[in-house]
What does this fold into?
Amino acid sequence: MLANMISVFLKQHKNVCTAKEIRANFEDSLGGQVALAQLSAITNLMNSQQKIGTPVKEHMLKLMGFFVEGEDNRAELDVNTQIEIVFKSLTKEFTSFRTAYNLGNKAHALT
It folds into this structure.
């Protein structure tokens, strides 16, 4: 199977002169896989919920792993989106923390 893949790869790049062109062509052919990996990372983030009794540190490390996975696959999540994902994933015990954070940010925006 690998030999067949190499043969196909060589045929596709027969007229390509530089390594840069080969790399660009190869990245284009993998574009669908990158998009799928981005979707997978974002789906993992959106579906992550802290389980009752799970320490916050453990939950945050899990989320950080998903953020890194998304970043590695060129998913672009701005800071505010990341913060929202984290807050929505926490248990109801953290509602007051979220409220305090949001009020603090509004106070900074008003001054």
Observations:
- The chain has a mean pLDDT of 81.
- The chain has six helices and no strands.
- The helical segments are 2-12, 19-29, 31-47, 56-72, 79-89, 95-110.
